[in-house]
Amino acid sequence: MKQIISIIIISILFIxxxxxxxxxxxxxxSTENGTLTIDFQAIxxxxxxxxxxxxxxxxxxxxxxxxxxxxxxxxxxxxxxxxPDLLNKYRSTDNNVLNNKMEVSMGQFLLFGTANAxxxxxxxxxxxxxxxxxxxxxxxPKVIGTGITKGADGVITIRFVHAGGKTVDPYxxxxxxxANGIFKIGxxxxxxxxxxxxxxxxxxxxxxxASLIVDKAKEGTPYWKGDLQAxxxxxxxxITGTLTETK
Length: 247
Prior knowledge:
Strand order of the largest sheet: 4-3-2-1-19-18-14
Largest sheet: 7 strands, antiparallel
Shape: globular
């Protein structure tokens, strides 16, 4: 596959997905280890905002603030507003997006709990198996093989993309659970992968996945560690568990 490596730094991963600082950023410099409990659900393969609103959510409780988020079916906006900013208190150190404290892929995927149909379509969770974004008259590369599968061995595979802001060239993500449906956060394993930069040519997970790199927290940064239990039944993905901050 011919792939052009962009010089855009990783911060684009969070544009329009939470790269702005909140008015009162959480103090993540404490010497005490934080905790993070996640209760996430999303319906895959449905692009009706009312259905998404009824079946998708992100609930977080922990050291750096709580989140009880979903989309409003009428306005198709996340409630509360700027939910990504709230999640950034956990995804990064001192709200600096370059200091990611968890796998970027998982941090991005959790936002499907508060996303509307447009993101499901653009990022590959519409059920078509294809992700391709159009914005401001431009169309990005076609990414084939997106979605969620559960193998006979019990492994849950999640493949999706995301392009920040008004850009159309996405980062590509792949996450794999173990045979029990557990995503082991903070392990630095190949179960979490992403593209090193945005892709600008068509990408096929079935052919081009070897180009992805291991997705992990930034070296030297406090990071979250623990198990997140996932289930995938009847097009509903659920992820729950508690993580501990490791400094």
